[in-house]
What does this fold into?
Amino acid sequence: MSGSDADAGSAAAGPAPGTLAVELAEGFAGDDVTVLIDGKQMWHRNGVSTNYSVGIADVVRLPMPTAAWPTVEVQVGRRSSSRRVDVGEARGAGAGIAGAPELRLRARIDPAGALTLGVASDETRY
It folds into this structure.
């Protein structure tokens, strides 16, 4: 894999206080993936593939957006899925990893090729 934007958003980087974590889960197979916040590219990587032994391809950790209701978008090739999120709810929800508030989203590609992006709060953390 080769990263073009901040590799600080990769799984190897620890979360900063107030973190947005986008988990790239099932269905990725050598894909070019871009994460945008309010239309601005925040992360991009080529060759993203799911490791099926853990069910995850990567975890993109970015600083928490300052807008109250930002739109987070994940693009995989020509497919795109977006979701408006409540940053205030994440900040008020308490601690994430290492005691910092964390808003977690999970992107998946189903067997038919549809890309979905949803809240991952009730799922396993990576």
Summary: Residues 3 and 45 are 5 Å apart (CA to CA). The chain is about 5% helix and 45% strand.
